[in-house]
């Protein structure tokens, strides 16, 4: 009889503890982590000494202490590549995958692990193409898992905490590393080795995160959304330089480019030869956007000489505002697809 009483008691204890475990999980928000590769998922190859893709999404998440107390995590492995190998087509696939998971009402937000080299552009591509406005945080690492102090685990924990927070609910797509939260539109990678590499210059961070708390500084920039086309139009990004004879612009115009972005100098000026090449491209119906290598303030219609920003705008080139050239290329690509190449409509998307 005593044995039966003891067995019934222990079964009840087990059921009660299972209830509390289930209840605690039930309270945790659901977050999907979509992994794509990058240093965060790399280890040092002992033969070559170089960082190579070596960590699975599951191992990545299991290496983050305390993550299970913040959210109920699902891991989706999209790919495992260094982000120097990323393409707009892979970002389109990533955008569709993220939207699929955000469409689940149970999912609070998505964290994307991605290499830092092209993270700013990849985050911006999703900012422009996701149907959902739920929070998405891009996260990566500047030090791989073999390093003496990898930064990936803390970055993942912070990104998951961020997408679960009330403060983040209208930030849409962000880049979150080293406790700083940047908007996808304004963020730039500014340091090739330091963990404090992403910032948004004069426009400032969206917020900060420490000790599991999100601090809000700013609202996200105005929203721009584009349908994902079946095929992304061929859009190239060129720089210019002293003595440039414009041959690269002409080559792009003669080899299928539907859009050309040119990273100019100063407030958006090019030399006379490049100016002639730009007119040659526009005469073929190619949309040309002018950005600048200068970090702050962007492009202005200031100079009226051959190749000056005011001359270029007057002749039909689109001034790229304060977007980096790499991001202007993605915006131009999506705008060409949406407006079927109509530059009078396309230019509206670049206005300040
Ligand atoms: N080369 C790496 C990448 O972009 C750098 C990093 O992840 O930090 O994938």
Compact summary:
This protein is 34% helix and 20% strand. The chain is α/β, with parallel strands linked by helices. It has 2 domains: 195 residues, 3-Layer(aba) Sandwich (Rossmann fold), CATH 3.40.50.1170; 117 residues, Rossmann fold (3-Layer(aba) Sandwich), CATH 3.40.50.40.
List the ions, cofactors and other small molecules found in this model.
aspartic acid
In total, the number of strands is: 16
- Can you name the CATH architecture of the largest domain? 3-Layer(aba) Sandwich
Q: What is the residue-averaged pLDDT?
A: 94
Tell me, briefly, the overall form. Answer: elongated
Distance between the termini: 82 Å
Broad CATH class of the largest domain: Alpha Beta
The H-and-E topology, N to C, reads as HEEEHHEHEHEHEEEEEEEHEHEHEHH
Query: How many individual domains?
Result: 2
Q: Strand order within the widest sheet?
A: 4-1-5-6-7-8-11-12
Rg over CA atoms, rounded to whole Å, is 24 Å
**Could you tell me the strand content as a percent range?**
15-25%
Largest sheet: 8 strands, mixed
CATH-defined fold name of the largest domain: Rossmann fold
| CATH H-level superfamily title of the largest domain | L-asparaginase, N-terminal domain
